[in-house]
Design goal:
The protein has 466 residues and is an alpha+beta fold. It contains seven helices and 25 strands.
Amino acid sequence: MTTLGLHHFESLLTNQMQLIIKERTIVCGRCSCGGCAEMKNFILGFFAATLIALGTYWSISDHPSGKPSPAKKAPLRYHCPMHPDYISDKLGDCPICNMRLVPLQEPPDTVQPDGPPGSQSDGSSTKISQDLPGYSSVQINPEQQQMMGITLGKARVMNLEKVVRLAGRVSSEPDNANSIPAKFAVSVRELFASSEFQHINKGDPILSMTSQEFTAAQADYLTALTSNEKPSRPDSQTATPERSQLDSARERLLRWDVSPDAIAHLERTRHPFPAFIVRSVSSGWVSNLAKPGTEVTAGNILYIILDLSTVSVLGELPEMDLPFVKVGQPAEITFNFKPGKIWKGTFDTKTRTGKVKVKFPNDSPLLMPNMIADIRIRCNLGKGLTVPESAVLATGERSVVFVAQGNGIFEPREVKVGSRLRQLYEIKQGLTAGEKVVTAANFLLDSESKLRAAPVNHGRQTPPQD
């Protein structure tokens, strides 16, 4: 019974008493006996005792401890929804993100009239985490869990396999490249190979060139040939100087890769070649051709013939993957132009700077140097404890998971993570096999946990330092 109800009841009793006395006065108004006065005193005493009894009952039932009912209202404080650590006693904007401050809930350890310590108006409860500062355990009923979309996953022990992926570029093997230098100063006149990395056979023409030295060598040969045709004396016992000069000029042309057929043609026509045609010394893919009009000095490269039966893919490993890769491990190479086709290779070289080389046989004429390839190297790491990747919240300073303790209680726990494997994280410390962790909506639990732990952080008003 409230105070207002008690006063109303007291007023009703008083009015009823006055009516009774008035009726009694009307009935006995003509007599002068003392019975009416005694009856009036009896009625007044009865109603007074009734009022005292009701007041005592109300005091005992509504205030068993003798303390007043309404609790003293705490001063209203405000916090930032995005930065729960920032708390202010004045309404305004967050100095970190300029977001509008919102009223802060009562501290979870405050005794409220409608529930036990730590209970919330929405049916959830909070327990401050002692091992993880700034976080608190949160208890959420099943209906709220379903609305938030919370899902769970188990920490499992399994075989760990890390797949290292990197991009690479096809390169020819240095031992399979045949570089052809110019044997005398030339000027490139025309190219017969139309494109870079064109396949040619041995003896195919590659380019033509002109050279003053080549023209002079042809003239010397024709002069020696004319001199050699003069009749010699019958008593000559040794080779004539003209014969020796002819042989020397011929050897000079042969050293410059002039074919015997070309020399025979020169002997028949007695006309020097205006340009010298260079022919391939072997079969393969031509590369690094000198461009028309280029002056090439003796010893510089005219062209390169590549043997692409075996090629390499050169790449660069991320620093975090260097410990997992060993020389001799099998590797898989794929190309975008050939989906589904996998080339098998071997991890051949690894440098301290992370540069790697994967060598593999080339059974396709489509693979050319400088093509971009995708490399996959599978590394077996043995057995380990894993959780789904979505279960781990990385804050920058630590990694946190929420562990389901039963009865709707979720405990924040710091873990030490190892390798990231596909869609899993290896857990080095902080969990045991079989424990259930939150895998979806854990960011909502993270915000709620920080929010409920914020009021006990000494009411800090200073923005957190980065």
